[in-house]
Amino acid sequence: MIQLTTATAIEKQIAKARTMKPRVRVNRFGSYTVENKTTGAAYTVTCEKRDGKRFASCTCKAGELGRACYHLAAAVSRHIQLASERAASH
Ligand SMILES: [Zn+2]
User: Which backbone phi and psi does 66 adopt, to 5 degrees?
Assistant: First the structure.
């Protein structure tokens, strides 16, 4: 579980996600399955808000160690997009 403070914290991983282009499936708002199209490896990324702070976690090895990974970055990008769509529709 890592805290998402600034975008720069996961900036490198966002860049990697753009290169890797993983498939992001929305399980529900806040829960995503990120699949590496080449290897077929899939991980679950969870995004949540606690006390106004944003947290995200990934089930891959890096994620278990509390490090940001590109799965997390890809899911967080999707999450932010969904959140803004939700906000726009209300
Ligand atoms: Zn990961």
Answer: 80, 20
Q: Please tell me the pTM assigned to this model.
A: 0.90
Return the structure tokens found at 8: 């720069």
How close is the Cα of 57 to the center of ligand 1, in Å?
Answer: 8
What spacing in Å lies between the alpha carbon of 35 and ligand 1's midpoint?
10
End-to-end CA distance of the chain: 30
pLDDT tens string 11-67 = 999 999 999 999 999 999 999 999 999 999 999 999 999 999 999 999 999 999 999
Strand partners, 44: 33
Residues with CB under 5 Å of ion ligand 1 are 43, 58, 60, 63, 69, 71
